[in-house]
Every structure is written in C-alpha cells, then in structure tokens.
Amino acid sequence: FTDLLKREADEFAQTLCGHRVSLYINSGMGFDSDIAEQQHIEGIGLYRTEYLFMMRQRFPSESEQQSFYQQVLADFEGKPVVMRTLDVGGDKQLPYFPIVEENPFLGWRGIRLTLDHPEIFLVQVRAMIKANLMTNNLHIMLPMICDVGEVDEANRLINQAFNEVRIEVLEADPNAKLIKPKVGIMIEVPSMLFQLDKLKGKVDFCSIGTNDLTQYLLAVDRNNDKVASLYDSYHPTVLAAIKRIADMTKDAGIPCSVCGELAGDPGGAMLLTGMGFTQLSMNTQNVLRVKWVLKKAQLECLEQLVEDVLHCNRPDQVKFRVNRTILNIG
Ligand code: PEP
Ligand code: MG
C-alpha cells in the first residue's frame, strides 16, 4: 500500500476524469521542502505563525520575524505561501502574554487580540512584507474574522505597514519594486456565512477553517473530551455551511480554499471536491492519501455524493455514504 501511495507522489492531484485539484500543505514550524517538491505540492495553504511566538520567552522582534519568514518564503520560491497573522488565545497561549478567561474560545483570540494591539500586528505584517521583497510569494491571511469591520480595520493597518516599509525600502534603493501581497481571511466563524457578499473588493481570497467552523457551528469545544463525540465535521449542517460558502464565494468571484482538517481527510477531500473546491490545504502526511482517492473518483460521482449527504440528518449517515463511495471506487 505504501508503494501505491508513493506512486501518487509523482503526480498532481486530479480525479479519474481529469479534474485538477491543487494541493497545498499546512505548516507552522519545520517542514521538509524536499518532500513538498517531490509530492507536487503547490505551495503552503496555511502557515501558522503562532508557533514562532510560542517558542520564545518574549515577542519576537521585527527583524527576528523577518528572517524567519524569509526562509519559509525562500524555501517555497515560485509557489504561494499563505501566512496567517498571529492566532493566539483560545487553546494557544503565549507564556509571556497570559490570557485568563472563562470562555477562551469565545474570547480574546486571533484578530480580536491583534486589532486591540495594533503594535503587535504592525510589527508582524511589516516583517512579512520585508521578508517578501525577494520572492514575492507571500499571501497574508487573517484568523477568526467575525465581521467585515474587522477586515476593514486589518486592511487599514496592512496598508499602513506596506507604506511604512515602502518608504524604508525606497530610501535604501530608489529602484526597488515592492508589490503589495494579497490579503485574505479565514472563514471559521459562522457569522461570516451571512456576510460573504460583503467581502467583495475587500479580500483577495478566503480559506475555510473547518476545525473552528465545526466547533462554533455545533457549539462544541474542539478540545473537550466530554463532548468529543458531538464534534464532527461530517455533520450535515457543517457540510451544508461549507457548501454555501463554496457557492457564495464563487458568485462573488472570491477564490476560496479549505485548510481545516477536513481537507486532509480522504472522505472530506472527496466531499469538498464534489462541492466545487479546487484548492485544499492539509498536513503533509495526508497528501498522498488524498491524491489516491481523488484519482479513483469521477467528479460527477463526487457531486452526486454531496447531493446525497446534504439530505442526511446525522454524521454517521454521511460517513456511511462516503465510505460506500470509497469502497466502490477503490
Ligand atoms: C481551523 O480552524 O480549521 C484552522 C485551520 O485553524 P486552527 O486549527 O489553527 O485554528
Ligand atoms: Mg482556526
């Protein structure tokens, strides 16, 4: 079986009928850029910058961040790298910036924290923009966006950071060319489902965080063992929400990918492909499995599967249909 999977490495992902799906990896600290090259990975779909912050005893300086990001961007030169701005709070704590709350997942997390501390956000974005000077493959992604006002505020700060860096860079080299990176958001808070039409002209792309979207849609803490059986991205309601996002972002002309765990699950990747997504981002170890199932399936069969599962009432009914399809194609 491992040999079979290895053979998938040499090819880009596509369905049996030749429908291409671009696969990206999720990363945060170390990654093996050779593996990424061998497996025909098309870039980094989610780079979790918080690990860099979690490993320090203080906030990393602008130049520390710059050299770190520069390395990541250089390792993937020629391919897009989606760097997410600091997403701490919730279950991710910084030892030097403790946050004590009764409901951390509903509290001071992600963009909420960095918009309240623009100095942290500006330093990070300036570091990213400087790191991008040579390679030009940076995309900036904003976590935990729950309203369009946050997008406006973050865009304002990103423009400020870009203008500051531009002045600095042009002073050093008047011929330097500085290109503004694309800016996108994570769709992981259910309120965004009802504001997708308002994103037009404000974001260049978006990416669905199915881990948090599942937790918030079903009101189930993703780390609480007592309710673990209720936490399920195969819940028909979660799938209906994701399908709605696929359709609405398509109508709005905003490219939308998926970077939550569902994208790296073979059955999940089948459903997402059937919904119309053509960009999936996952942990490196899932890439070959996903390629393998996609290669066995006709797009039409996956679209039919989505039709079927959206009529289900429970996650186990969805899983039954997904597994039956896997068995049929395998
Ligand atoms: C998600 O929420 O699905 C996601 C990709 O982000 P994280 O798991 O880092 O919250
Ligand atoms: Mg998330």
UniProtKB/TrEMBL annotation:
It comes from Psychrosphaera ytuae. This is phosphoenolpyruvate--protein phosphotransferase. It is found in: Cytoplasm. Belongs to the PEP-utilizing enzyme family. It comes from the Bacteria. The chain holds residues 422 to 751 of 760 of the full protein.
